[in-house]
Specification:
mainly alpha; Cytochrome Bc1 Complex, Chain D, domain 2
């Protein structure tokens, strides 16, 4: 069943496949150069560059509306819809801690003050009371606002969503 010709075919198939892969790798290297390669005396430049500020800081947002103005015009009804993103980890009933602490009466409440919930301590470094300004900063980027926080939520990038949510939490402490 296994004769010499079968062995030769297997070895030939393996060598042929290896040759195809080696030729493909050589052709890919010729087509796509990695890094800058000089061709003789000619200098090769990148086709397109993205300008980046030298000081490492991002350019400030132009015409950004202050949070206070957005918060003054916030719609609590829209905030209830935004709370659906929070509901996976937070409850509104007093003392009902889940993955995160209860959000019952959170606006105006001292930071790290819910009994029965183990905080990371990172929040006390940045705020004393959950006023709308601190909530806005935290909800925009929790880990950026309070490095070391246990909250793994990525944040709410839209300032109107944050303002609406905070307005709804302020008017509906217990859901």
């Amino acid at each position: 069943m296994f004769d010499t010709m079968t062995g030769v075919k297997l070895i030939g198939g393996f060598c042929g496949t290896l040759l195809v892969f080696l030729l493909g790798a050589w052709a890919a290297e010729e087509l796509y150069h990695v890094g800058e390669v000089a061709h003789g005396d000619e200098e090769v430049h990148q086709a397109y560059t993205i300008p980046v500020p030298e000081d490492g800081e991002a350019a400030p947002e132009e015409d950004a509306v202050p949070f206070e103005e957005v918060f003054a015009a916030a719609d609590p009804g829209a905030g209830e819809r935004v709370f659906a993103k929070c509901r996976a980890c937070h409850q509104l009933e007093p003392g009902a801690n889940a993955t995160g602490p209860t959000l019952y009466d959170v606006v105006g409440r001292p930071v790290d003050s819910v009994d029965g919930y183990s905080y990371s301590g990172a929040l006390e470094e940045v705020a004393d009371v959950w006023d709308p300004g601190h909530l806005n900063g935290f909800l925009e980027n929790p880990r950026g606002y309070a490095p070391g926080t246990k909250m793994s939520f990525a944040g709410l990038p839209d300032v109107e969503d944050r303002a609406n949510l905070i307005a709804w939490l302020e008017t509906n402490p217990g859901g």
